[in-house]
Fold this protein.
Amino acid sequence: MLRLDALTKTYKTGDKALKEVTVDVPSGQVIALIGPSGAGKSTLIRCINRLVEPTSGKVMLEDLNITNLKPAALRRERRRMGMIFQEYALVERLTVMENVLSGRLGYVGFWRALTRRFPQSDVDEAFRLLDRVGLLHMADKRADQLSGGQRQRVGICRALIQNPALLLVDEPTASLDPKTSRQIMRLICELCAERGLAAIINIHDVALAQMFVARVIGLRFGEVVYDGPPDGLTPEKLTEIYGEEDWEATIEKVDGEDDAIEAAE
Amino acid sequence: MRAYAEGETHRELDDLLGTTWRRPPLVQRAWLRWTLLIGFAVYLVAAIASVEVNWTRVYEGLDRGAAFVMAFARPDFVSRADAIWNGMLESIVMTVASSVVGILISIPIALGAARNIAPLPVYLICRGIIAVSRALQEIIVAILLVAIFGFGPLAGFLTLSFATIGFLSKLLAEDIESMDKSQAEAIRATGARWSQWIDYGVKPQVIPRLIGLSIYRVDINFRESAILGLVGAGGIGATLNTAFDRYEYDTAAAILLLIIGIVMALEYISGVIRARVQ
Amino acid sequence: MPVLETAEGPIWRLRNRRETLTRWFVWFLGIAIFLWCWQQISDATTWFFVWDAPSIAGDILGRATPPRWSYMDNLWAPIWDTLNIATLGTIAALIMAVPIAFLAARNTTPSALFIRPIALLIIVATRSINSLIWALLLIAIIGPGVFAGIVAIAIRSIGFCAKLLYEAIEEIDHSQVEAITATGASRWQVMVYGIVPQIMPAFAGIAVFRWDINIRESTVLGLVGAGGIGLQLQASLNTLAWPQVSLILLVILAAVVISEWVSAKVRGAII
């Protein structure tokens, strides 16, 4: 469904963030993207919806090459790719409801957006999604009044109301405590299963990734060094991805409990 | 994951489905919101209605306006070179002298106006000085000082020094009040005297800000010095006023360009210096 | 960190000899410049008047008290004009400042090479020149009156408001903008949802702050003939009617204090 073909990104400074990354994402598959800071995880995700312009290579969404779309067509395709951010990236001074509805911006005109008169079907869908994540009673609260976990749920609603085929998730748990991290990861994976969405989840917490996904891609210095099931992540593989460290404790935690995860944070 | 029972939420959701959603208004109480809105609208209408505009005069003025804009393309620095040069020099002299004196006086006043350093009586006196200095505008102070000391740059110098004190002391005092306590405490813990404590615990924290504010104030003082001449307190303002009175737009344009140029240069320098001290 | 080697062993100093000398030289130069400036001022001053100043000040004070309260009846209309100059001028300035700020901010300008320098030039030019000078200029062009005052205040405020606003735009949280962009929103929608909510508090603060300053400035615009209470001040000064002058100064002082209080209240309510 999504195919990255020799995707390369070189920043103006000369840093090579991605080197010929080739990945195939079938429909409905959830993938965890792991790797050390600076490995190019965020860049990879942002190259897919072209928040960052790739230098070369192709991003094929079904049969469409995203990389050479004109702005208007790119905006149409972005609607099919919901994005969830590290620090939630909610518009802090807007209400929860406005934040959720902002996911429909690609579908409505400028005046509707300006006057906040979204179609009734959008409003209903927003209510349903907020109910699904347990935040219906918060609809009129301002986003900056919410806790971290609640904000990330609003972020998930904003991505889902786009009615996407693919979720791009950038470090969804980086600013959350271990328990909330698990809840958020579980919620994302459940929603993907419910709706048959494919997802690429950037995540630095290996144990958390292993717990929830069926496929893991390891990135190091902009190159794919691992692509396979989570239980294939041996200490040798992790050393290759992250560098030398004692990995036994991390791997055991695959079936460990919350307290063990806390230790890994 | 949900804090409430399953059936309950569904009822809540079912109630909401099909209803429109409106952004909650900024002012919650409807009567207050409408009072404010209508009040403001009424004021605007009354205000605009009370402004008498002589449109024929404005229309006639458009030519002069165009002439003035054109004058910027060919400013005349030459025909009144003497007056411009002397006025500019006087403005700069007033700026430098008043900034130096104003800054020197405002440092002790700022220390006195910081609640975490000064005892209450000193604090109240210093805050009083600041309040008086800030409430009176430069031009009014200049009028009074010209009446007292006579025409000339001395009145302008005193005006700007006085204004500098209010501006700088207030901002500096706020800065001292918000400084990092632990650094100051650490110096006090070494057994330092009050003066040593100020020197080692307080000064290093506020010096960068003092420099930044001082340069900013030099900039303001220069701009203000350009108008003090209108009331006879020295500087380029008198020359400018004469130029306008005689409709010598090219000379006026030259002076304005000089002012803009100097202000831009000052802003550039202040940017460089602030980047270096911070 | 320089350490001097002496016969009695090493001595620590904060700066080495050259740095110390440079510092002394800069201080010396600064003091010399200041003294020269003072010399210039002193030369241009008639010191006879200055020595006489205390008695003149006392004389003026004696004549100015008590203020002529009955003159208040003539002041209500100018006060209303002053308020209008400040308010309408601020509103007009904001209307013009918003687009200029968006053109000047690095992250929203359509062209950093051509449009941004023009916007910055407008900002610098309008804020370098005092509103009294703008008023002088406008009076020469469109004649004296309240309208010239409004336009003068408006022009002077454009640069001020636009500068603060474009700095606020440059400081916004980019990830929020990114999130809105990722939904497939158009350029204008990103502006309305991603940028405007973030700068609203700054905008409101700037508006009220500038209004407060404009009340102060509009009280003296009349000195050059641009309407408001300054006209009465000028007339009273010309006729040496000191009791009226003192009353007008009290009114101006009250206006300044009230406007500062209002602006502090409103800003407190917004933020």
Summary: The longest strand of chain C covers residues 3-6. The CA atoms of residues 67 and 246 of chain C lie 6 Å apart. Chain C has two domains: 3-62, 75-270. DSSP finds eleven helices and two strands in chain C.
